[in-house]
Structure formats: C-alpha cells, structure tokens
Amino acid sequence: MIKSRLCDLVGIKYPIIQAGMGPFPTTDLCIASANAGVLGILSSSGLANKSQPQIYGAFCRSGNADPDNDSPEEILRKIFYKVLENTRESQGIFGVNVMVSAEMREIAQVIVGTMLKVREEDPEMKKRFKVLITSAGDPLPWSEVIKKTDLVWMHVMPSVQAARRCKKAGVNVIIASGHEGGFHTSWEPVHSMILLPAVIDEVADENTLVVGTGGFCDGKTLAAALVMGAEGAQMGTRFLATEESDFPPLWKQGVVETPDRGTLVARGFVGPARWIKNDRSKLHQRNTLQKSPGVFLGVPDDYSTMDMSLIDFENESINAVYAGDKEKAMMAAGESAQRCNDLPKVKDLVETIMKETEEILRAVPNRLA
Ligand SMILES: Cc1cc2nc3c(=O)[nH]c(=O)nc-3n(C[C@H](O)[C@H](O)[C@H](O)COP(=O)(O)O)c2cc1C
C-alpha cells in the first residue's frame, strides 16, 4: 500500500485530500471522504453568503441547520457534529477549509474560533477534526493563533514566493495550487507541472510537507505528484463529481459532460475563476474582458474597484444551477473535468485511484529499464 508522510502526519490511509469547495457545502462529501480513508474537508465560506439564499440555504441544510434562525456559530456546530457522528465507525479524519482573504477576515475568525471551541468540548472531536486549511490570503497573520494549537495547518497558495511566506508562518503542509484547478485560480497563471516541483525544491523539508492541487484526478496524476516529491494531492473537481457530493445534479452532470478544452477563466466572487464552458460562461468571459480586464492581465482588483454587475451575473448563474435552469447556469470546475467521466461512489473512486497509482509506480522501473 502506498503511504506518504502526509498519511502519518494526519492519520489517513491514503495520500489524498478531498478539497473544500465553498461557498457550496461539502458536508456529505466530507463524511464520505473521511469514511473512505482520505482527508475529508468541509467548505465554510457559504456562511458569508447570507445575501444569496440558495447558496446559504444549501450550506445550512447540509448540517440540518436552520438558515432563518440559527446563528453562524450554531450552523457551524451542527455541521461539525454531523460529520463527527457520521464518521464514528470509520474513525475518519476531517478538517475545514477557511478562506482568509481580506473580505472574508471577520467570518474566518468566527469559523476558526468555533472550530477551536468545539474541539475543546469533545475529545473525539479534538482527535479527528484536526486539520485547518487556510486559503486565498496571507497565512502570516494567522500564525499566532494557529501555532498555539495542536491543529495540522495547511495553506493553499499559487507561487514560490507565497510558499516561502507559508514556511515563515509555520504552515505544516503547503498546498501548491496550479492554474488547472477548479473555481478560484490565481491572478497569474502557473500550472501544476511548473509550480509543484518549484515549490518542492524551495520549501520541502522534514517539517514542511508539500501537496499538489489543480489537475489531479486519478492514478496517473497522483503518481506524478508523488514522483515529483509531493506527499499527496488535493482533488476538487474529481470529488465534486461523485455520488455523495453535495453539489446539485446539473453541476455534477456538467462535469461529466465536459469535453476536451471544456473550461475557461472569467471573473469569480474573489478573483479569477475557472468555469465549465457554455454559452453563459462565454458571455461572462467577454464581460470580464471589458469590465475586469485585470483577470486576464494578472492585475488584481476588488469589490471597491470592479463593476459589480459581474458579481450579480455570477450570483444569478449559480442560483440557476440550484434551480435546475440549464440555460442560465454557470458551473465552476477545473480542467480535469474533461477527464472525469462518471459519478462513482467516493469509496470506489478512492480505491480505483489508489490501485492505479500503485500499478503505475510498480510498472515504471520495468517499463523504462
Ligand atoms: C466549485 C469549487 C469551489 C471551490 N471553492 C473553494 C473555496 O471555497 N476555497 C478554496 O480554498 N478553494 C476552493 N476551490 C478550489 C479547491 O479547493 C481545489 O484547490 C481545486 O478544486 C483543485 O483543483 P481541481 O479542481 O483540478 O482538483 C473550489 C473548487 C471548486 C471546483
């Protein structure tokens, strides 16, 4: 069986992280993933989407919380305990993805604060809810709080420069996020084939593990990550398209049907985002070119400088997915969507990926000798 230092550090069977995919819930997906022996990750940024009732409602209902009456802390608590209870038999390990960009700072504090509180209440929660993945911002301001805890801290970032900053902050696992990835992508495109080995060369050592994300979806790609020196891969799009994933049927089917060259980049909630190509996302891309050209020029803008009609269009398009309106729907996914052609059960998916990875790694010395 293939194991890496990521498995030892976190206590998982396989070197795979199921990615958080906010603001959409991944609560049921996290349960299925933790039960399948990989690291299950909850999304949390849906908590910031109260102005979008479809997304907020789906997020709350994923933990059987009441969108109208429960406080943010109560909603999170219900989600955290739902995962704990439903992974008791397998003793699966799970964590939460928290976006720490400037506009998310306040809500991020609530999420991390609730996580730390809940872990102190229940020894089993402390033992198994042990990973915090921060993303979309600077890890350094979080160091003081997180380094006082026994959490395994991971941070998702897109460059060698950001990897150095993670190391300075004391991040345990640096997740190098290539431009192939689904939804949020970086302002400047560097793909996994360049980014991952560059980050490994720069920061990997006995205390700093590196994991790849963006484009990893099967045994071939996981084997490649491990051969490059990564300790595993985080997969988003591949887990989105599974039987247990919380995403609406239209979205999952959209991933399965994505053909060759089937995604594009246009404006997203917090910056550039990768979408499945359809008439609606092509229009959004053209609008982005006019109204937020920085997305294509590598020049960040934010809600104070950009044309908010782009965000309104995006909200309308995502609500349409939840309403099952294919004409108006826009669905985020990574380039790997073109390689995800089915909706397997998470356990079967994980076992297939690991079998293929093992076969490839065993065959390589003979094949090339
Ligand atoms: C629909 C969707 C939503 C996502 N939302 C988040 C998010 O809230 N926070 C985050 O750090 N990454 C987010 N991501 C990125 C994933 O965590 C992961 O890094 C990415 O999907 C990896 O690339 P892949 O899709 O090729 O596997 C999202 C990805 C998708 C597909």
Outline of this structure?
The protein is of the alpha/beta class.
Q: Name the CATH architecture of the largest domain.
A: Alpha-Beta Barrel
Radius of gyration: 19 Å
- Helix fraction bin: 40-55%
End-to-end distance: 23 Å
Tell me, rounded to a whole number, the average pLDDT: 96
Secondary-structure element series: HEHEHHEHHEHEHEEHEHEHHEEHHHH
CATH-derived topology of the largest domain: TIM Barrel
Spans where pLDDT lies below 50 across 5 or more residues:
none
Supply the CATH superfamily name of the largest domain: Aldolase class I
- The total domain count is 2
Q: Structural class, please? A: alpha/beta
Gross geometry? globular
Strand order, largest beta sheet: 1-9-8-6-5-4-3-2
| CATH level-1 class of the largest domain | Alpha Beta
> Could you say which small molecules are bound to this protein?
flavin mononucleotide
Beta-strand residue fraction? 5-15%
Number of helices: 16
> How many beta strands in the DSSP annotation?
11
* Major sheet attributes: 8 strands, parallel
3D architecture notes:
This protein is an alpha/beta fold and 369 residues long. It has helices at 5-10, 27-35, 53-61, 72-86, 105-121, 123-128, 143-146, 160-169, 192-203, 219-228, 237-240, 249-257, 279-291, 294-297, 309-323, 346-368; strands at 16-18, 40-42, 94-99, 129-135, 152-157, 173-177, 183-184, 209-213, 233-235, 263-268, 271-276. It folds into two domains: 5-248 and 341-362, Aldolase class I (TIM Barrel); 251-335, no CATH class. Helices cover 45% and strands 14% of the residues. The strands form two sheets. The chain has an eight-stranded parallel β-sheet with strand order 1-9-8-6-5-4-3-2. Helix 2 packs parallel to helix 4 (72-86), helix 4 (72-86) packs across helix 5 (105-121) and helix 10 crosses helix 16 (346-368). The model has no long low-confidence stretch (mean pLDDT 96). It binds flavin mononucleotide.
